[in-house]
Amino acid sequence: MERGQKHSARLGGQHGGGRLKMILWLAILGSGVYTGIKVIPVLVNNFQFQDAIQSTARLATVNRQSNDDVRAAVIKEAKEQEIPIQPSDIHVKGDNGNVEISADYSVTVDLGVYRWTLNFHPTAKNNAL
Questions:
Q1: If we measure between CA atoms, which residue out of 52, 51, 43 comes closest to residue 119?
Q2: What is the pLDDT of residues 95-113, one digit of tens each?
């Protein structure tokens, strides 16, 4: 046997096995990074919107805002955060200093081969002392 044939015999004819695994892992890693790039900004926007409506609920109690004023403030914040929400999707309950804000909206992320719809339900509540 020649030297190259001995080396091939020792490996059992598995020349491309390691290379295939590497390509597969790189494809998985690449798709994970791509998905993260598409989804993380949507999640960050939701987090910032949740924080904004919590602040709005606290300020509504202090400033004694009406439900319509609170809804208008939430709509304004949603536009700033580029949240696709309709005024009818924002629910405000307020009486005796208690304010409760809830909203429902969905964002569809286009991943090229799949469209992923993320549903969000941020809420905020501020009870008077």
A1: 43
A2: 777 889 999 999 999 988 8
